[in-house]
Amino acid sequence: MTKRVVVTGLGVVSPNGIGVPSFLHAIKNGISGIKFMPRYEELNFSCRLAGMPDFEWVKLINYISEVTLHGLKGTNIAYGLAAALDAWADSGMDYETDEPRWETGCVFGNSIADTEAMKNVIIRVDNKEAKKLGSRVVEQAMNSGVTSYIAGRLGLGNKVITNSAACATGSQAILMGYEYIKHGYAKRMLTGSAEHVDTYVYGAFDSMRVLSWKFNDHPEQASRPMSSSAGGFVPGSGAGALVLEELDFALARNAKIYAEVLGGSSNSGGQRQGGTMTAANSTGVIRCIQQALASSRVDSQQIDLISGHLTATNADSKEIQNWSDALKRAGDDFPLINSLKSMIGHCLSAAGSIESVAAVLQIAHQFVHPNINLEDPNPEITNKIGIDCLPVDMIKKEINIVAKANFGFGDVNSCLIFSKYN
Amino acid sequence: MTRAEILNELKKVFAPYTTNKELLNSINDDTDLIRDLKINSANLVDIIIDAETKYNIEIDFDAADKMINVGSCIDVISEKINQKNVEYR
Q1: Nearest beta carbon to residue A132 from set B19, B42, B49
Q2: pTM
Q3: Which of A64, A70, A120, A135 to mutate to test the interface with B (most CBs of B within 10 A)?
Q4: Which of A147, A173, A349, B83 could form a Cys-Cys staple with A195, CB 3.0–4.6 A?
Q5: What are the CA-CA distances from residue A184 to residues A24, A99, A187, A247 (Å)?
């Protein structure tokens, strides 16, 4: 007998809102978190915009001791810690514990350590001053830095795993946490992901010519998924976190339940059949979505809302085609679909977790957030699905089942199925 | 620099690495960095680096190994300061 898994806590550091109340307000009202970045102009980037959270570093003292804070430089770690600890508190639990919490684990993903922070390391080593680096570099340079800080603060004693699957990282982390609970390995998993797109990572994307460059003077209009004028994505930073619990375990402590995770799937298109390092194999995407439905025992007709990957590149219309083929739904029969990236840009590793927080909130509060900047839907998309499937204003509606997917470099896919808790 | 002066400055070096600020104000030669001040052993390296900067000295591996309590920290630092003064003479 496999277990049912529910979401009992949420935390978010998003470009358009930090903390659930602020983020909920922003996504209901279509508030953009995209800003002009003067530094990127100085650096001669083509895209000079970013979804950057209004994160106040000093507030970290609410989460960790001043000794830990002293010497913390990794922005990705800071975002992940704040989101994870907010989710923990939101689920009604204390931070402090003497015994490890053997029943609780953590799967939290990220891409790379904060390269801006690592720059100091590179300079010192090249300057023959390695001796002056101190004790705090390694823990922040290691990929498992984020999970180490989170699990250490909360005394998590079950599986503690850092995953990395490019833009599919966040949804994959949640899926892994779900699977451990479902199969009885853990009672509770703190899941999510964090990303800080520093100038060096940003520059590398800029060089690939995949970023939005025509809207530098109009930051809030720059992220335009599914529109004819979509001309690349806007990099975003932040973190999202979900506390997942085995249903009976959550009920036993009277936890509030936001939604249920019905199932999901993670696969790869193998960089075959049109799939490459940067492009998705459609067959892999379709299999991923269909396997997610099968594992959730959900019929495609039951999907009320798709939270797409939809980054605002030319892959958007192919993604819509893949969803349509996977669900065998087209035209006006297609579900509602939205892209949070229209408001916050593409948060890479953090995209899946922040978007999952949004998906869960849309179920918990029964609404569909708008796609902003969709004044000119791409005809390649409206040829496939009805225009009413693309909400441009917030819709109050009964939302029972949401499909959330992300597709990443390396031809990796992850799809989650969330449901209202009944 | 007298031992009392070094001790005063040393409190500032220790401060970021201990949450026990009250005890920090009343430390003496016998105060153990790890046992009493609850300083994480990995942070001893940071304290050595900060002390090197503060007193403009170099603390080698052998000397660093001796820095277990406040008294031995002062011993090492004053010895290194004196060595430096000899070199400059």
Answers
A1: B49
A2: 0.96
A3: A135
A4: A349
A5: 32, 21, 7, 12
